[in-house]
Design goal:
1 helix, 33 strands
């Protein structure tokens, strides 16, 4: 199970290993998907001192267990490449991680107080994790100093995003009139005072138009709605979620056009969360432009002028080998635009 000779590897590869895969020399993964299925113990992916593992393109998935970057080793994730870890990423003293693509860690990034090395996320790159050093920071300022975002990279931790699990946020014209109905739902909430509904004409300058009370702390699914009867032009909407202590965070944007879109009911995607296959409900049998984005705003799938049947096939095909996490799906055609949040497990 050792890649001891180094070299360059490509293509789709699945390794079902009993214990650990040990990287003992420089390796480049250049295309396709490399899936490593270990026993779930510590160090199912490990790199020796002085080794560089470069993901040039394609995807490397540590499917069951941790990834350990040893002192003096470097993990490099280039543009359009993905490195995904099912459990923890452990970055030891003197180890380095450079992210120009996507680093996706399902659980915790353990980086500690390393004095040398660390994680650098460059412009266009992004890193996702549930926790950092076992904690959920409230903002980027609370991240360890050895996580470097000075080059414009993005870092998403659950504690930095909305303190509620926003399952969906949609909007559309109500009964063919110049009235907008907004709907959203949450899967869980922590100290949630409620939501300010904000509106903008240009998508940049927003005004608060309403406040909808939340449910405090709950693990139940809750549905919310607001009707805007004061709209005069096509507008953007966002939610500003506010905790009881004043901490607030923004949702993604949705756009509602005054062009007649009333024959479209709000779309639903099920199951959501999904384990690899979804079905759309609520859209007409028409042609749509569909974009699938990660939480950093990077488009991972772009379908132009496609039917619903074809888009389901393409999205399900993508989800089969995609990094698990949260995605935004945008559906649009003349007079209609809607964004749905999709969770892939």
């Amino acid at each position: 199970n050792d890649l001891e000779n180094g070299g360059t590897f490509c293509g789709d590869c699945y390794l079902d290993i009993n214990n650990t895969i040990d990287i003992e020399a420089d390796v480049c993964w250049v295309s396709g998907t490399l899936t490593l299925d270990g026993d779930g113990g510590d160090g199912d992916f490990s790199m020796d001192d002085g080794v560089t593992f470069t993901v040039v393109s394609g995807t490397v998935i540590v499917e069951d267990g941790d990834a350990n970057i040893s002192p003096g080793a470097d993990l490099v994730i280039l543009d359009d490449a993905i490195f995904s870890v099912a459990d923890d990423l452990i970055v030891e003293e003197g180890a380095g991680v450079v992210v120009d693509g996507l680093l996706d860690v399902t659980d915790n990034i353990d980086i500690g107080e390393t004095l040398t090395g660390g994680i650098v996320v460059n412009e266009g790159g992004s890193a996702n994790a549930q926790r950092v050093d076992g904690q959920q920071p409230d903002n980027e300022d609370d991240l360890p100093d050895n996580i470097d975002l000075s080059n414009g990279g993005g870092f998403n931790v659950n504690g930095v995003e909305l303190p509620v699990e926003l399952l969906s946020f949609t909007g559309g014209l109500f009964e063919g009139k110049q009235i907008v109905q907004l709907s959203w739902s949450t899967g869980s909430e922590i100290d949630n005072r409620g939501f300010f509904v904000e509106r903008s004409i240009d998508g940049q300058d927003f005004e608060k138009i309403a406040f909808v009370e939340g449910h405090g702390t709950t693990t139940d699914i809750h549905e919310y709605a607001f009707i805007d009867q004061t709209i005069e032009v096509s507008s953007y909407y966002q939610l500003r979620q506010v905790d009881f202590d004043g901490v607030n965070a923004l949702s993604y944007l949705i756009y509602v056009s005054l062009i007649d879109a009333t024959s479209n009911d709000p779309i639903s995607i099920y199951p959501n969360p999904t384990y690899g296959e979804v079905t759309f409900d609520g859209l007409r049998q028409e042609v749509y432009d569909i974009q699938m984005m990660n939480l950093s705003g990077k488009v991972v799938l772009n379908l132009a002028s496609t039917s619903l049947e074809n888009s389901e096939v393409e999205i399900n095909r993508y989800l089969t080998g995609a990094t698990k996490g949260v995605y935004l799906l945008r559906f649009a055609n003349p007079g209609y635009s809607e964004i749905i949040r999709l969770i892939s497990k």
